[in-house]
Amino acid sequence: MNMHELDEGRYRLFSFPQQSGQHKFNNLQSVDILKVSTCTLAFSFPIALQFIMVATIYHVLVLGSMTTGVVSAVLGSTKFDLVPPVATAVDRAENPCPQKNAAGQSIITTWDKAQYLCEDDTNYQSGDITGIVAYTLQDCADACATFAMFNGRCDSFTHDADVARSYQINNGANCWLKNFGLTDGKNIDYNGSSAKLIRRA
Length: 201
Fold this sequence. Notes:
alpha+beta, 2 domains, 9 strands, Apple domain-containing protein, transmembrane, membrane
């Protein structure tokens, strides 16, 4: 801070040099938190009072800007890297079918805009093409759509919400991609949700 005496010591001019900087907060991205343009203040008060006033203004301009920057960084700029858990560590991954539409149908739409008719508490028996681990019903549906794009055989699937148990007793999978024409009917399974293709993209 530079202090210059003016007019025989009765007035003092305080100037703050422009300050700018970048700070890191607990691995957050660098955030510009302080850009204060040079400001000047002239006072005709005792020197002690002048310093109190300057300190107050500095606190508002500088520390206030820092606080705003930290809050903005936490709420608006934070990015997370997700490390998926191993299947044996996931007890359940709830898999209800989507809410029914006006026609009373529950429809899952995949990444390629294909549509599958979904049934809660249902297991399609046999007809398996392959099995994978999927933590959501949507992931299982999208995997079927991707498989179908390459060889055209997957047109249905069954997803089991009991991830850890299914992984351990059902060949390392809880999502089974299926060929519906090769299935052997269906049965009630309170851990299962199943769906079959009703419209290609």
